[in-house]
Amino acid sequence: MQESRRPFLTKQNVLFFFTDDQRFDTIAALGHPEIQTPNMDKLARRGTSFTQAHIPGGTVGAVCMPSRAMLHTGRSLFRLEADGASIPDHHTLLGELLQQAGYRTFGIGKWHNGPASYNRSFSDGDEIFFGGMSDHWNVPACRYDPGGAYAQVNRRIDNPFHQNTISLQRADHVQLGKHSSELFSERAARWLEEEAAAADGSPFFMYISYLAPHDPRSMPEEYLQMYDPAKLSLPDNCCAEHPFDYGVRDIRDETLAPYPRSEQEIRRHLAEYYAMITHLDHELGNVLDALERSGQADQTLIVLAGDNGLAVGQHGLMGKQSAYEHSVRVPLILAGPGIPAGETRDTYAYLYDIYPTLCELLGLQTPDSVEGTSLAPALGDPAWRAREHLYFAYADCVRAVKDKRYKLIEYRTDELRRTQLFDLIADSAECHDLYGTAGTEEVVKALSRHLLACKEAWDDEAHPAGGRFWRLYA
C-alpha cells in the first residue's frame, strides 16, 4: 500500500474556474493533439487531473442547470428541486458553508440557479449573469445586490436557421462590446489584486463561471485564425445524423447545424469551438497571473471544471443531451498546495463530488444534505476508487450505466425502444454497438441489473422524467 499523501489545506483560499460546454478532451496537456490551451496545460502540470470526471446527465434540455445545482449543493440529479432552477434553503450551498467557516465569497459570471441561491452563496460579486446563455459581446450582467434584487434577465438567442434572424452562431461577428471571457476575467483579476489579501487574514472563495465555450461561438478574430477547419481531424464517430431519433432531433442545440451534418460544417464548428476555448484559456491565464501578483498563490487551491460536455458532430449530434462520453465527461483539475503535481487519477467521479472533496481538503464538516463522495483519498492513493459504476440520464428518454469496461444505454420514447452496448476499452469513441451480438448476453444482464439498482438508489422513478422513462422501459 502506497503511503498516503493526502493533503489538508485548512483555511486555504479557493479559486474555482467553471467553464460552459467544455468537453473532457479539450486540453492539450491531457492528450488533445490540435487544441492550444497553454494555461490549462500549466494547471495540469501543477496539479492532479481527474480524467474520468462526469456529470450524471440532466433532467431537462438545459443540462447545465441541474449540473450547476449539483456542483453547488453536492446533491445527485434526482434529489434536486425544480431541476435546479432554484435551490431550497435546506440544501446547504458550497459558498454558504464557506461563509459560515469565515470565508469571503465572491462570485463572477453565469449563475443558472436563481438569484436567491446566488446571494446565499456569495457575500459579494460582480458581472453576474442570471440565465443559460447570452451573446458574448452583450452580456446583461448585474452588479451584486445585497438585497437580492436583480433586474437583468437572460436574452434569448434565436435559431440561426429560422428566417428573419441574425446568425450569432457564426464567427464573422460584429464586436459590439467586451467579450464575456474578458469581462469576467478582468473583474476577477482586479479583485485578486486589490482585495484578495484581507487585513484580518480571512481566506477567500472566488468562483468564476464563464459563458465560453457555449455558443454563440464568437471570439476575437485572432483566435479563430489559429485554426484552419480544413486541417482539423474529425473523430471516428462523426456522422451525418444520429442513427435513430430518440427525441432530441429538433431541440435548440441540434438545430445549430443543418441535417445532414457535412464534414465541412462540422470542421467549421470545431474550429470555432477550439478558438473559443483557446481565447478562454488566455483569459484564464490572466486571472492566474493576477493571483501571482496578489501574493496569494501559495495559499490558494485552484479548481478547474466544466459543467457538461458537447458532441460537436460526434454521433451526428451537436449538443449534450445524450449519455455518450463526449456529453457526460468533463474536465476536472485540482492544483495548489499539497496537491500532487503532474499526475492523473482515473477513479470514476461526478462533479457533485467536488463539494465534499473541498470540505475534506479544507478541514470542514460536510453538511448532511451533501450526497457526493470526497475524492481527497485519491490524491494520496492513485488506486483508490470512489465507485465502480456510473449512472446517466437524459430527460425521460435515456438511461445508461457503465462499469470499468462496458456501457449500456437504454432509449425509450412512445415510438422507440432501443438498446446500445459499447466496449469502452476497445472502442472509446462508442462507434460499434455490440448489443445483440454473440457473447454479450451476460454483460447486458449484469449491466441491466445495475441500471435497475441505480434507479432505486437514485430515486429516479420518483422524478417526473424518471417516472415516464421507467413506465416505457417496463
Automatic annotation (TrEMBL):
Q: Which residues form the Sulfatase N-terminal domain?
A: 12-363
Concerning Pfam families, the annotation shows: Sulfatase
Tell me if Hydrolase is a UniProt keyword of this record: yes
- Gene Ontology MF terms in the entry: arylsulfatase activity; metal ion binding
| InterPro entries (UniProt xref) | Alkaline_phosphatase_core_sf (IPR017850), Sulfatase (IPR050738), Sulfatase_CS (IPR024607), Sulfatase_N (IPR000917)
Q: Which domain of life is it from?
A: Bacteria
Q: Which UniProt keywords apply?
A: Calcium, Hydrolase, Metal-binding, Signal
Q: Which cofactors are required for activity?
A: Ca(2+)
For this chain, the family text in UniProt reads:
Belongs to the sulfatase family.
Q: What is this protein called?
A: Sulfatase-like hydrolase/transferase
Species this protein is from = Paenibacillus sabuli
Which lineage do the record's taxonomy fields give for this organism?
Bacteria, Bacillati, Bacillota, Bacilli, Bacillales
